[in-house]
Amino acid sequence: MKNSYFGEFGGCFVPELLMPPLLEVEAAMRRLLPAAEFQAELDDLLRNFAGRPTPLTYCPALSGNLGFHLWLKREDLLHTGAHKINNTLGQALLAKKMGKTALVAETGAGQHGVATAAAAARLGMKCDIYMGSEDVARQAPNVMRMKLLGAEVHAVESGTRTLKDAINEALRAWISSQESTHYCFGTAAGPHPFPTLVREFQSVIGRETRARFLEKTGGLPDAVVACVGGGSNAIGLFYPFLEETSVRIIGVEAAGTGEPGCFNSAPLNLGAPGVLHGNYTMLLQNRDGQIEPSHSISAGLDYPGVGPEHARLHKTGRVRYGMVKDANALAAFHRLCRAEGILPALESSHALAYVLDHPADFAPGSAVVVNLSGRGDKDMGIVAASGDSGICAVRTAECRENGMQHFKRNF
Amino acid sequence: MNVLEQKIRHAAEEGWPALIPFLTAGFPDRSRFWPTLVELDEAGAAVIEIGVPFSDPVADGPVVEEASRRALADGITLRGIMKELLERKGLLKAGLVLMGYLNPFLQYGFEKLADDAAAAGVNGFIIPDMPFEESASLRGMLGKRGIALISLVGPNTGEARMRLYAAGSEGYVYVTSVMGTTGERNALAPQAADALRRARAVFSLPLALGFGLREPSQLEGFPEDARPDAVVFGSALLRHLDSGGSAAEFLRRWR
């Protein structure tokens, strides 16, 4: 295994039964990805099926208020509604060329599940999606979409019944189905080679941003900003800018409600290093190494770990990682809807909120690109339930109670 | 020769196969855990694997996962397990192995883990989510104290990967019978015999067959050249204990 680490983070911490299929994916990645034929086929899928390239949209109203130039990279306009399709088309094509006939994947809010189901249907592959039963209940429209696209959706009843448990169950399913099946991992985390593989497929976001920005302004942006859950949209935007020292890079984690004792989804800021889901990275965990439940108003950020390359970029300081609370993300959501006529995903609203809430961080006249990683149609239920209070009252009460019980038990 | 290897070889001579029960720490409950260990020991276990609970046990089926969840809810921790083993050191004849996922061991600290395990009379570790590539530093620290890091191989582990493991292996080799998670199966797949044959050719250590074992009849008709030296059973034992059965009675089935 080569280059499985980003500094001290990453690695491949999986049962031996999963080593042969992971080595197979790694070998296929090195052999097939660079080939012109593969790149041409993927490019065709991205253009003519997914809708790439996506626009870089200038925000005149918000820029006027803020005093600096705000641009949005419009991944929300992609087929299935988010950046996830960049990765699933890439992995599905790779799997097909490896001779696999089926895909298995985990999903939290259902965006990665829908994108995997769409890629599988397009390429004529079977598809099994694992989803926590809590998420199945609260994301019914996405479950329906996956089923319509031909996927079988398995509700996972173990653990906290959310994304992390869906990953456990998908890994278990892959152990027994590895001969015919590729695990289409949804974010730039997990065991090697997934953090690298997913970054490869998502870097199209940063490459396009760079090229479009240069075309429109003749230079580079002063800052690029993205939300970080597992971190695939963020690493996709950041990677092509890492060597550009003039470009500030900001990742935004979800702080949850921000109330004392409450869960959050900010392992870079509030966690400690450890091993979960195949990699050594920053995690929400107690002192005994048990993984803590996470919380965010946005299901796509609701995960107790983060991709190992982000852990590395956090440690070296190349990327600055901020935090945004549920209420601030919701406020940013509403503000973008009204000011610019764009309905963002609650995930992407965290990135936007960071910029809107810290105008002093950006010099007057400078240019900031925020990755609008997905659209907000899927979040209507949560936004409606939040009413005027700015936060989801039901989940906050539930979170506060769980959080306090948990706190008492562990500390 | 590592003490685990001795115990298994000795037990297999007394009566084949040597028996390796797996018991999640704190199972069936805090007060009955130690008496159950003693019962397993007296009923002839060659080695006892104690499961260290983890919130995300990815290699385990539903029975062991549920036992792990219950243990965590009861406040079972690695520190508590080490303390209890230290207090009762020398009371068991069987070899002792801790089986668990990497993160709790990592947070405990590898040096302290190796020191405390040696002091508490632990003879080996099985860490399902630490494949060969990630095992060098812990293997070294345990090795210095005479503690084995037990290799886990399965039906899809080819000869080349078995050779990687063989170089640093001690104690015994855990051969999984199925391409799946822990838990009972009705019949053993033919790949189990192939994996055992391959392991026999590569390793000089005793081979323990695990995952899916429930009753001795599963080994009937197993080809002579693919016979394991020992068998591991976890889920079937946990279920037996949970439904009120005794540990001794479960082990007697294999005699």
Shape descriptor of chain A reads: globular
Assembly context of the chains: heterodimer
- Average residue pLDDT of chain A: 93
Number of individual domains of chain B:
1
| Individual helix count of chain A | 17
Number of strands of chain A: 14
Mean pLDDT of chain B: 95
* Class inferred from helices and paired strands of chain B: alpha/beta
The total count of helices of chain B amounts to 11
User: CATH class of chain B, please?
Assistant: Alpha Beta
- Cross-sheet strand order for the largest sheet of chain A: 3-4-14-9-10-13
Report the portion of residues of chain A in β strands: 15-25%
> N-to-C SSE series of chain B?
HEHEHHEHHEHEEHEHEEHH
- Chains forming the largest contact: A-B, 34 and 43 residues
Contiguous low-pLDDT stretches of chain B (5 residues minimum) are none
Note the overall shape of chain B: globular
Report the sheet-strand fraction of chain B: 15-25%
What characterizes the major β-sheet of chain A? 6 strands, mixed
| Radius of gyration of chain A over all CA atoms, rounded | 20 Å
User: What's the end-to-end separation of chain B, in Å?
Assistant: 27 Å
SS-derived structural category of chain A? alpha/beta
What does this structure look like?
The complex is a heterodimer of chains A (411) and B (255). Chain A contains 17 helices and 14 strands. In chain A, the strands form three sheets. Chain A has a six-stranded mixed beta sheet, with helices on both faces. Chain A has a four-stranded antiparallel beta sheet with strand order 1-2-12-11. In chain A, 45% of the residues lie in helices and 17% in strands. In chain A, helix 9 (194-202) packs across helix 11. Chain A is of the alpha/beta class and 411 residues long. Chain B is α/β, with parallel strands linked by helices and 255 residues long. Chain B has a single domain, classed as TIM Barrel (Alpha-Beta Barrel). Chain B is built from eleven helices and nine strands. Chain B has helices at residues 3-14, 30-42, 62-73, 78-87, 102-108, 110-120, 136-144, 159-168, 190-202, 235-242, 247-252, and strands at residues 18-24, 47-52, 95-100, 124-126, 148-149, 151-153, 173-176, 207-210, 230-233. The A-B interface holds A 1, 4, 11-17, 19-20, 158-159, 164-165, 168, 171-172, 175-176, 178, 274-278, 283, 285, 287-291, 409 and B 54-59, 61-62, 65, 69, 72, 75, 77-79, 101-108, 128-134, 151-154, 156-158, 161, 176, 178-181.
